[in-house]
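Protein 1 of 2
SEQ + STRUCT:
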Amino acid sequence: MKSVLLASSLIALSMALAPVQAADLKVKITGSLSSVTVKHKGKDVVIQRNQNVENTVNPAFAKTSRECPPFCINPMELAAGVDTIGEVEMLDYLGKMSSGDSSILVVDSRTPDWVERGTIPGSINIPWNKLNPQQGASPFDISDIMIKQFGVKDLEGLWDYSGAKTLVMFCNGAWCGQSPNNIQNLLKFGYPPSKIKWYRGGMQDWESLGLTTVKP
């Protein structure tokens, strides 16, 4: 049932958000979805796949091996209750955001130097160290992010997550620890796992599928 609802949602997104010329695209996202238009810093950005069938992976994401630790392969299930998602689900969340759903926030957990190389349109950057007390994040800074960006309420020192946003978090890929670090810290703060989604493939998978990226 969940997959049927998602498919129906994506078909609706394709009809409502994709530009007319998308019907002519040869390299589609799915059989029924050619592109998704999202808002990024107030401007429309069309997400679609690279139409050049000879295109190869961005060299920045072509490496297959990094020392482990710290670059160890993460499990598919990061934490109990936190859903792991793929590209189609990510596009569904982005489409809902662009349709006016303010209960969703897509978060790039990478450091700014990586974001400068390209990020997913519609995302905002909250580097992993900004939510990590061990990396110098102060309680005030963490509280500021929680309240102003995540929709959490501070009730006399207690967090109220009843109106908190659903956070869709990603970083550089299955071997990257930046979004897992953000997620684990949020769980320690009491953030509901049902309101956290993890795009495990991150930028490496996004780039390998030729999907649109934007730079600051």
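Protein 2 of 2
SEQ + STRUCT:
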Amino acid sequence: MDRSILIVDDDPAFRELAGRILVDLGLRVTAQAATAAAAIAMATDIRPDVALVDVDLPDGDGIELAGRLAALPWRPRVVLTSVDPDAAAPDDVRRSGAHAFLSKEELANGTLQGLLISD
């Protein structure tokens, strides 16, 4: 299944690495954003199927952003991520409307693909 993906992270090196991992998994990265504001603008413009969102962003809380993205009319699937494996509790994920939380250490182990493309 070909799903468009928006990567939201303030670290350009991480965005590049995550993009390579996703492409290697056969997925299509449509856009990248460094801030919550840019992510909302891009999401509205490109209507991604999926958003990979860092919890800590320079202009806002990634958990709050996840809620805004998940509430968009086309209901993109949102996966939260962070270097801190405890950055988002299960209740945070559920309340935000995100699909899941995955620490950045787990991105390359195959779990990410299942979270992004499973129905």
